[in-house]
Amino acid sequence: MTTPAPLIVRTVPVDLADLPLLDLLPQQEPVSWLRRGEGLVGWGVAARLETSGHTRFSDAVKWWSETVARAEVEDHVGEPGTGLVCFGAFAFADEPGDSVLVVPQVVVGRRGDRTWVTTVSVEAPTLTPEPAPVPPVGLVFSDGARNGEEWMSVVAEAVGRISSGELEKVVLARDLIATTDEPIDVRWPLQRLAAQYEMCWTFHVDGLFGATPEMLVRRERGLVTSRVLAGTIRRTGDDERDLALAATLARSSKDLEEHEYAVRSVADALEPHCSSMNVPEAPFVLHLPNVMHLATDVNGVVHDVATSLQLAESLHPSAAVGGTPTSAATRLIAEVEGMPRDRYAGPVGWMDASGDGEWGIALRSAMLIEGGVRLFAGCGIVASSDPEAELAESQAKFVPVRDALGAG
User: Fold this and answer.
1) Are strands 201-205 and 347-352 parallel, antiparallel or unpaired?
2) Is 169 a catalytic residue?
3) Cα 221 from chain centroid?
4) How confident is the model over 157-197, as pLDDT tens digits?
5) Cα 35 to Cα 27: distance, rounded to the nearest angstrom
6) What is the pTM of this model?
7) Beta-carbon contacts of residue 35 (< 8 Å; ≥ 6 apart)
8) Which listed residue (79, 168, 169, 397) is catalytic?
9) Domain with residues 7-405, CATH architecture
10) Catalytic pick from 214, 258, 260, 393?
11) Which of 48, 96, 273, 278 is such that its CA lies 20 to 30 A from the CA of 246?
């Protein structure tokens, strides 16, 4: 068996002024992780791992450790996200679905007033804007695995199971299919999502794209942060009315109960890895263009050598995307949801050679498929959930990607 050649990695500062990073992306093999204009974009494939099943995280950790060990790195910037970096997207469940780690040939990063380019075993590219993407042609939406009525029946079934004491909360998802006449240029929805949802993390890895409001875990120089979202209300577009709705959300016993489950599951998962933690007593309301969420930022100081990906594994699936208790919720999802989630609601993000990185939850997301796109949305179900209200919430959660695909 031949040993793979070492990866020759070089990071240097560049002056790109105010050029948006997404404008640099070519149509072929782009990756992205951006929020408010900062983050990472890349293209090309210097190394790649595909894995699946219950060992998908440990397989990826082992592969990354081996890849880092054989890299020769020259880093003239020294920020998180410089040097050797991988991007990853992981399946929600052990099966079905595959998971991937990709090392791009070129990564361009921005943090504050610093911008850099990393090359992996290739010459440094000329960094100029690429031709603008074009909108999808012949876009048509249709129901996925279940229509609205069928999905409400599933929600009602789950409420019955919760009321009988089987579990406390379950997150149920549904999908929507968009077909097009021509293959979609993923840069089109990425640019629109980044502009419309700048407070979210706009991502694309191996066909999975979206704008997630939920940071599963960030590890940076010994500090860990996880943003928990659970409890949602749709915005009306009327500022005064939305403020009143935000106050209603903050007092809602149903939403506060759902949120408490999610925060508790994150804090319990991080606690073994942290020497000190800060878990706020009450959530704040996060305002996004289409919805508002109850949100809590859990912070800690890492006392072990767990990488950001290993921390993500320990957190997944949190109550925000699975339920409580986790084992009962994931069994119910497999039994009644009626569709494969694949990478929806799984960890997506990036990691550098030190193990620092950011892993979000693949929410407000979609997957490129043959002939179009598969969109996803999910809702937290508790004993007091109303199927019609949950259907409306799921429709609101389709809006970001659905609008981003449109030509308007």
Assistant:
1) unpaired
2) yes
3) 22
4) 999 999 999 999 999 999 999 999 999 999 999 999 999 99
5) 20
6) 0.93
7) 198, 199, 200, 201, 202
8) 169
9) 4-Layer Sandwich (3.60)
10) 214
11) 278
